[in-house]
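User: Last request for today: this protein with adenosine-5'-diphosphate, please.
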Amino acid sequence: MELRLENVCHAYGETEVLRDITLTVPRGRIVCIVGPSGCGKSTLLRMMGGLERPDRGEVLQVGAPPQGCLNPLTYVFQDFALLPWRSVEGNVALALEDHRTGRARQAEIISDVLSRTNLTEFARALPRQLSGGMKQRVAIARALAVNPAVMLLDEPLSALDAQTRALLMDDLVGLWTRAPFTAVYVTHNLAEAVRLGHQIVVLSRRPGQIREVVEIDAPLEARDNADPALEAKREHLWTLMRDEARAADAELSHV
Ligand code: ADP
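Assistant: Here's the final one, the structure of the complex with adenosine-5'-diphosphate:
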């Protein structure tokens, strides 16, 4: 299944937030969305997940979800959104409870996703016993448990320190390399986008419009920061982002 957005527009009252967004999220790819704070990135993600409906335009799910998919769209949030009184496996099980999977199949799925996210030995731990990075791995395991068609990640690493962010980026690359998934990854951090994105969608300041879609061909598992081609893309993206962020800043200061 792929997601297609056609001429999506949205406003909150008088505030126009998204203007004419047309975009395809291809199957098996990670699409990163970057842009200055307040430009509508999270709103766009909520539209993709069906949490909100656009004022105009359409969000289409094209094609069949993967085999064994229990929920076509799942979220991973910045604040992990774990239930504090539930263990790691209990939090993962949460994603499966509304589905008639049967106990044995449920246990199998939980064991599989905990193993893929290196959490097996922490299955019984409570969230308060875990570091931020591990909490986010639990949230990622929970999102993977339903074998989604598209995973929607909203600033998933923004609450973590730089070192943990780097480790989790490696984890996400490893997960994708072993079993490619489709994802939309919202971030304000260009380094994350260049590390994880097959496509990087740069939004303008509000109302968010697509300024450019930058493709990165280098395979995720072999991206080398010193690669001059990657450096050139990073530089180009930074120029686009800086222009938009500066303009957004100037607008705010006049309010
Ligand atoms: P980003 O994720 O790029 O920082 P958001 O999508 O969160 O941007 O927000 C875009 C704009 O829409 C902001 O100005 C924000 O204040 C406004 N906004 C977001 N959600 C709502 C809402 N539910 N009601 C009113 N305004 C909102």
